[in-house]
């Protein structure tokens, strides 16, 4: 999950979703550099929009794939999948709004792509509910600019779905999976992945 929380800022106590940049000139990227990272889930090339304020939690970076993490993932994807070895779909897991996010409106894709993807997400939600999870709300969108989901959908023209983990109403724990919920979340992730595979190969 490229949106995974990297650290808790000791500077102002807020949770962060950015990588670490050494902006203090001490050759160490640590929590004192909390304000200066880049949100990796806004740094992918597709629909990238350069950030203007480095201290924002969703600062996208100075240029597309400017961060080594993002560049490595984009390069791997470009080299791993082609006409002989096509990517069939994408499912990534985030926190924490307890819903399915589906990328639609992908340029260059004809036919009933949007309706097919929506049906796949609907089936995913149905199976998750049957599996005892509380997921269920689906949301169609073009995807955030520079996000992993948008990049996958637009580059490979495949279904790209984000499964948001359950929301914890307590801010201090909402970004962290509780021990007693790990098995259930993994079961939901597996069920979601199998649904997408069934759709892509069926």
What can you see in these coordinates?
The two termini are 26 Å apart. The protein has helices spanning 68-80, 113-130, 148-156, 182-201, and strands at residues 7-8, 15-16, 90-95, 99-103, 137-141, 160-165. Helix 2 links the parallel strand 4 (99-103) and strand 5 (137-141). The strands form two sheets. The chain has a four-stranded mixed β-sheet with strand order 3-6-4-5. Strands 1-2 form a two-stranded antiparallel sheet. Mean pLDDT is 76; it is low at 1-14. With 202 residues, the chain is an alpha/beta fold. The protein is globular, with a radius of gyration of 18 Å.
Strand content: 5-15%
Radius of gyration: 18 Å
Q: Report, as a whole number of angstroms, the end-to-end distance.
A: 26 Å
Question: What gross morphology would you assign?
Answer: globular
Low-confidence stretches: 1-14
- What is the number of strand segments? 6
Q: Give the strand order of the largest sheet, numbering strands 1, 2, ... along the chain.
A: 3-6-4-5
Oligomer: single chain
State the helix count.
4
Largest sheet: 4 strands, mixed
The portion of residues assigned to helices is 25-40%
Give the helices and strands as they follow along the chain: EEHEEHEHEH
Structural class: alpha/beta
**What do the pLDDT scores average to?**
76
Task: Please describe the structure with a list of short key phrases separated by commas or semicolons.
202 residues; alpha/beta; 4-stranded mixed β-sheet; two-stranded antiparallel ribbon; 4 helices; 6 strands
């Amino acid at each position: 999950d490229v949106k995974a929380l990297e650290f808790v800022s000791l500077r102002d106590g807020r949770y962060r979703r950015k990588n670490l940049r050494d902006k203090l000139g001490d050759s160490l990227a640590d929590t004192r550099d909390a304000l200066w990272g880049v949100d990796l889930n806004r740094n992918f090339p597709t629909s990238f929009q350069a950030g203007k304020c480095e201290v924002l939690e969703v600062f996208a970076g100075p240029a597309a794939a400017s961060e080594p993490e993002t560049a490595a993932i984009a390069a791997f994807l470009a080299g791993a999948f082609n006409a002989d070895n096509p990517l069939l779909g994408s499912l990534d897991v985030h926190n924490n709004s307890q819903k399915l996010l589906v990328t639609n409106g992908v340029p260059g894709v004809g036919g009933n792509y949007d309706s097919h993807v929506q049906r796949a997400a609907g089936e995913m939600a149905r199976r998750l509910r049957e599996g005892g999870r509380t997921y269920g709300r689906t949301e169609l969108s073009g995807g955030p600019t520079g996000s992993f989901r948008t990049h996958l959908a637009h580059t490979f023209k495949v279904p790209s779905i984000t499964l948001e983990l359950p929301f914890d109403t307590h801010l201090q724990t909402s970004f962290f999976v509780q021990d007693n919920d790990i098995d259930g979340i993994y079961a939901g992730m597996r069920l979601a992945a199998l649904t997408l595979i069934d759709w892509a190969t069926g």
